[in-house]
Amino acid sequence: MSSPLRVAVVGAGPAGIYAADILSKSGVDVSIDLIERLPAPFGLVRYGVAPDHPRIKQIIVALEKILERGDIRLLANVDLGTDLSIEDLRRHYDAVIIATGAIRDAALPIPGIELPGSFGAADFVSWYDGHPDVPRTWPLEAQQVAVIGAGNVALDVARILAKFPHDLLPTEIPENVHQGLLANPVTDVHLFARRGPAQVKFSPLELRELGHVPDVDVLVYPEDFDFDEGSMAAIHSSNQTKQVVKTLTDWTLKDPEELTGSRRIHLHFLHRPVAVLGEDRVTGLRTERTALAGDGSVAGTGQLHDWPVEAVYRAVGYFGSPLPGLPFDEVAGVVPNREGRVVGEDGAPVPGMYATGWIKRGPVGLIGHTKSDAAETIRHLVEDVPSLERAPLRSLDDITALLDERGVGHVEWSGWMLLDAYEQALGAPQGRARIKVVPREEMIAIARGTS
C-alpha cells in the first residue's frame, strides 16, 4: 500500500481502546483515529463505575498507557450523527469500527413503570458519576425505595442511595452530587431479584462490600431462600456462586441485636415485579412470589405482595442505541454483525464496517471479554484489508479540517491531559485523586485551553 490503512474507531471506552490497541499491533501499516462523543475518554469506566470503587477505576490507568503512546489519535467531543455522518467517515477512512457501547436502560414493560418517581438505573448512575449530558440535580425525596435487578449495577444503586454522603467524600464524587445526596431522606432500600440466591449476578467482592457500608445494615430473609437442583449445580460448579451464596447465608444468620444502622438495605429473592403502583406518582411496588422450577428458572405462584415505596429504580440491564446510517437490531439493542463484521438487512457484510464491545454482543461480560471480543473483530478486519475500498481523503489533516469547518471543538489527547491535570488539582487540597468537572462547556474550555 502506498499509504497506511486509515481506520476510525467510534467510541473511546474499553472496547474501542482495546480494538485500536490490538489493531495497532497487528502488523498492518495503519493510522487510527479514536472518535469519542464526550470531551473525555474511557466511557463507562469513567461514567458507569460507582465513585466508591476506585479499584475498578484503575482500569483507566491501563487504558491511558495505550493512548499516551501517541500512535492512536484521540478526537473527542465529536458526535457521530451530529458532527460527522457515516458518509463522512467513509470518505476519510478505509474501515470503521463501531464501539459505542450500551448506555440506555433496558425496558421493563410492567404497568406504572413510567410514573414520576420511577427511574432507570443508567440515568441515576450517569448523574452520580458526573456525566456532562444529564441534569445536575436528582429528585431524592423517598424514604422507602425499591431497586429492581440482580446484578452489580443494582447493588451500586442500592449502596449509593443508602450510603451517607460524608463517606463518599474521599472519592471523585462531583460537588453537585454530594450536595444532592445530603438531602436524601432514605431510610430503607429494598432490592428485588426474581430468581433465587444462586442465580443472582452479583460479584462476590461487590456483595461483600455492601456489608461494610458504615451505619447501614443489610437484611436478608430466610423465607426468600430456596435452592433447586439447578441451584445446587451452579453452586458446585462456580466458586463465584458459592461465595455469593455463603455471604447471603451468613447475613440471614445475623443476630437482630447486631442491626443498629440508621439505614437499611433489604435483599429480597424470588420476587418478580408485576406493577409499579400509584396514580400521579409512585406509591408502591407489587411483586409476585416466584418458585424455582428445578433448573434454576422460576415460575409465578400467583402470591402477590405490595411494598409501600415512594421511588423505584430499574436496574435490569443496559441497551444499545442506533446510529444514523447503520443497521440496528431493535430487539437485541445491537448493530447486527457476524463475529464483528456488520451485516445489512440482507445478511450480507457491509464493506468496511465493523463492531466490537456491547454494541456488538449486548451488555454482557467483563473487561476480559471485551479484549477477546475486540481480538475477534480485528482478526476479521485484518483478513479483509486486501479487499477494502480506499477512502478518497487520506490525510490526517482532512478530518480535523472538516471538524474545524463545522465549528466542532474537538479534543485531542493533549487536551484530555489538561483536563486530567485540572481535575487532579481540584482534588489535591482535599487529599482526593480528583474532583470531576461536570459541565460539558467547562470541560471543553479547559481541554482546549480557552478557560
Q: How many helices in DSSP terms?
A: 16
- The largest beta-sheet arranges its strands as 3-2-1-4-18-17-16
Distance between the termini: 43 Å
Based on CA inertia axes, which overall geometry fits? globular
Radius of gyration: 23 Å
* Helix-strand makeup class: alpha/beta
Sheet having the most strands: 7 strands, mixed
Q: What is the helix fraction of residues, given as a range? A: 25-40%
Q: What do the pLDDT scores average to?
A: 95
> Looking at the chains present, what oligomeric state does this protein adopt?
single chain
The CATH architecture of the largest domain can be given as 3-Layer(bba) Sandwich
Briefly note the CATH topology name of the largest domain.
Answer: FAD/NAD(P)-binding domain
Count of spatially separate domains: 2
> What's the number of extended β-strand segments?
18
Low-confidence spans? none
CATH superfamily of the largest domain: FAD/NAD(P)-binding domain
Highest CATH level, the class of the largest domain: Alpha Beta
